[in-house]
Amino acid sequence: MAGDGTIEKVSIIISKGSLEGVYPGLIMANGARAEGIEANLFFTFFGLDAIHERRWERVRLATVGNPGLHLPTWVGALPGVSALMTRYMARRMDRLDIPPVPEFVEMIADTGAGLYACQASVDLFGYRREDFIGQVKDIITVGEFYDLAAGGQIIFT
Amino acid sequence: MAGDGTIEKVSIIISKGSLEGVYPGLIMANGARAEGIEANLFFTFFGLDAIHERRWERVRLATVGNPGLHLPTWVGALPGVSALMTRYMARRMDRLDIPPVPEFVEMIADTGAGLYACQASVDLFGYRREDFIGQVKDIITVGEFYDLAAGGQIIFT
Amino acid sequence: MAGDGTIEKVSIIISKGSLEGVYPGLIMANGARAEGIEANLFFTFFGLDAIHERRWERVRLATVGNPGLHLPTWVGALPGVSALMTRYMARRMDRLDIPPVPEFVEMIADTGAGLYACQASVDLFGYRREDFIGQVKDIITVGEFYDLAAGGQIIFT
After folding, report:
1. So what's the ipTM on this one?
2. How many CB pairs under 8 A join A and C?
């Protein structure tokens, strides 16, 4: 964001826990690192699921309230449909070498991106530090987030 | 966003009317003001509920289309489940000193943050100026929004 | 975003396929062009529907998982309710001279805004170049997006 017109840093907030809520932020962080752009990921609200030891395996696609899926609403609400769609998407992603959430998160951490959990959300859900995967650098406040994000682009997903 | 790497202003757009749609923006605005960062909140589409006199008390958690809640879809669709989850979240928030939507919005306005409603959305829903709480400074166009947001970060939630 | 405090460019990402997911981004792009601000639109995930030849006519309002509509959840899940709400919203928009999605997208392209599809999402859904409307300039990677977005504001919707 400096005057020379290059992006030097992105601070990506992941606030949703669904598959289609988590992937855009992961893809943007991964793409930034591939370009040599500094990238930090901040997980807040239901987005915390993506870095939660016992939940990140189960991030699922939202099949109701999502007209983009072209399913009648009542089909989306049938037991099992969300799991089925997730398996379908996962298979497609696999074929495209897009890893599942846990592997993708680990991969992005390995590129040097910082992973942070939002303090207010951690308190809200009653989580503790040890609930999160080891790659999480810190649990930080909104103020600390702004400090880290300064000089770059904030992308709320 | 100046060259010295500090954030001087945030312009936060709140576009969703659910509890988990409204809170992130409020928390980010509140956190900005606590750091002495200029903050303006722009309410658009269903986000307008959060500043609507007769609706801000009733902003609710979306219990369907939200895999983050770990509820089977059909449970989320049962009458009353959304209201129940909202009460549960509200109790947790209360324990953490996170105020309910109306008090939180008032508190943020008191810190000097500007509250604005989106003209196009106000027209779309057929609202009038007097439908909104007194803390709303103005109903503005997208162009006026860009003028106000210049020199800072735009955060769409 | 230059030091003089004016916004020179906006890069708007449209990631959702519902009516209320697509419109905010379109309205912000249109408003930017009206102010002489450079605007580019990036369609990703279900947002691709808005530029898909056989799908852009059918972008619908999400009636479940959306407490902002003030419908009991079970009403929103009834067959036909989403289509009904969409027709209601479309009528209101028409009265306000807000065009339907296809006309709005064409109009924005005519103002000189750039329309781009996200490569990863195109691969994910198995789409091809010819599935998209002629106004789409290119299918680009995340890295190319960052290059295009440099020097402006990124707005993820």
Report:
1. 0.83
2. 105
Q: What are phi and psi of B6, to 5 degrees?
A: -120, 150
**A58/B109 Cα distance (integer angstroms):** 39
Looking from the CA of A109 toward its CB, the CA atoms found within 13 Å total: 17
pLDDT in tens, A87-141: 777 777 777 777 888 999 999 999 999 999 999 999 988 899 999 999 999 999 9
Q: Which residue has the tokens 């300039």?
A: C137
* Cα A149 to Cα A153: distance, rounded to the nearest angstrom: 7
Helices marked H in A12-128: 19-34, 73-76, 81-95, 101-110, 119-125
The set of residues, in sequence order, having a beta carbon less than 8 Å from that of B36 and lying 6+ positions away, is: none
Chain B residues interacting with chain A (CB cutoff of 8 angstroms): 1, 3, 5-7, 10, 20, 23-24, 27-28, 30-32, 34-35, 37, 62, 64-70, 72-74, 76-77, 89, 92-93, 96, 98, 153, 155-157
Nearest to C65 by CA among A69, A125, A53, A90: A69
Q: What's the CA gap between B108 and B119, in Å, rounded?
A: 21
pTM value is 0.86
CA angle A69, C32, C87 (to 5 degrees): 40
pLDDT category, C61, cuts 50, 70, 90? low
How far is CA C62 from each of CA B117, C17, C83, rounded to the nearest angstrom?
A: 22, 9, 9
> Topology of C9-156 in CATH?
Hypothetical Protein Ychn; Chain: A, (3.40.1260)
How many contacts (CB atoms, under 8 Å) link B and C? 104
Question: Using a CB-CB distance cutoff of 8 angstroms, which residues of chain C are in contact with residue B79?
Answer: 72-74
C96–B17 C-beta distance less than 8 A = no
Domains of chain A, residue spans: 9-156
Tens-digit pLDDT profile for residues C74-93: 666 666 666 666 677 777 77
Q: Do B82 and C73 touch (CB under 8 A)?
A: yes
Q: Are strands A114-118 and A136-140 parallel, antiparallel or unpaired?
A: parallel
- From chain A, the residues in CB contact with C60 under 8 A are 67
